[in-house]
Amino acid sequence: MRKLHLALACLLPLLAFTVIVKGAYVRLTDAGLGCPDWPGCYGQLLVPETAQEITDTESLAARPLETGKAWAEMIHRYMASGLGALILLLAGLAWRERHTHQPWVALSLVPLVMFQGLLGMWTVTLLLKPLVVALHLLGGFTLLSLLWWNLLEVRGAGRASPGLQAATDLRPWAMFAVLVVFGQAFLGGWTSTNYAALACTDFPRCHGQWWPDMDFANGFVLWRGLGINYEFGVLETPARTAIHFTHRLGAVVVLLTLLWVFLQTRRLPAPGRGIGWCILALLSLQIALGVTNVIKGLPLPVAVMHNGVAALLLLSVVTLFRYTRPRGP
Fold it and tell me: Cβ(140)–Cβ(146) under 8 Å?
């Protein structure tokens, strides 16, 4: 059982990361409503190949079948379902070994993955409502972070030496860094689901201005009621510009915060310095990908990588946060 527990602990962060990247691909290829019903696809467990195979005629009337988009959406659902099933197994194994390892991280994943499943359902049934889609992204990032934390706990790795004052002093900044990256991830999800990624196509200015015409009031309305199809967005250009510009401002906050954190890690021993260099490398790559998305018109591989690197950047600051929790003397 111990070997199975460790194997699952190693596998699940990788699977969760893959689900996040696949979800980004589904969203960026406008396949989120590739299957307009849930949990099946046009009333079928597998994607139907022809209209004659479709049993849910109401869904067919609502949206014509596009096989490629439907398969992209269903593969994402299959992967997410598999992740959920394995998380339940992980929680069971963690409970069995509670005498040697604290099981609270693995057990907390169970209600979280169930709520994540509900968000996935609501993403479809509420027609890509931006708040639901953004929370679904954050839920995925939270699952990934906890799975990574669980792996570190199971392996007993990634903790500073007892009495290391430099690590203890850095802990509040590490926590702040986690919150800042989470906040920026929400802004990224809000930008994507409101189709605001290309609201500004020049850099560093936007529409040739340092402060363009923006409508923040409409750009950040979290709930607009039911029955609205949000595919391809419902906002006017000034509102989308406000969302895009806020995401840029958030990137500046992330940049300054993580640069400060990196400088503080220079006072740590080798493991802590290594985490700092990892944060700096991922931060640099993420900024380069973000700028490329703007000036190159959101190329699909770059946009998907932007989501993936955001997840890895979050894991790097989560790792630092755990490192700054020293062992007892």
Answer: no
Per-residue model confidence as pLDDT tens digits over 14-25: 999 999 999 999
pTM for the model stands at: 0.93
66 in Cβ contact with 33 (< 8 Å)? no
* Domain residue extents for the chain: 1-157, 160-329
Angle, CA of 62, 66 and 70, to the nearest 5°: 90
Whether 153 sits among the annotated catalytic residues: the reply is no
What is the per-residue pLDDT across 134-178, written as a single tens digit (0 to 9) for each?
A: 999 999 999 999 999 999 988 876 555 555 777 888 999 999 999
Catalytic residue among 73, 97, 231, 236: 73
- Name residue, tokens 């190329």: 299
Distance CA 61, CA 191 (A): 30
Tens of pLDDT, residue by residue over 206-261, are 999 999 999 999 999 999 988 899 999 999 999 999 999 999 999 999 999 999 99
* Contacts of residue 62, Cβ cutoff 8 Å, sequence gap at least 6: 36
DSSP secondary structure string for all residues of 20-60: HHHHHHHHHTT-TTSS-SSSSBTTBSS--SSGGG---HHHH
Q: What residues contact residue 72 under an 8 Å CB cut-off, 6+ apart?
A: 25, 26, 29, 31, 34
* Paired residues of 209 in beta bridges: 206
Number of H helices, E strands in the chain: 10, 0
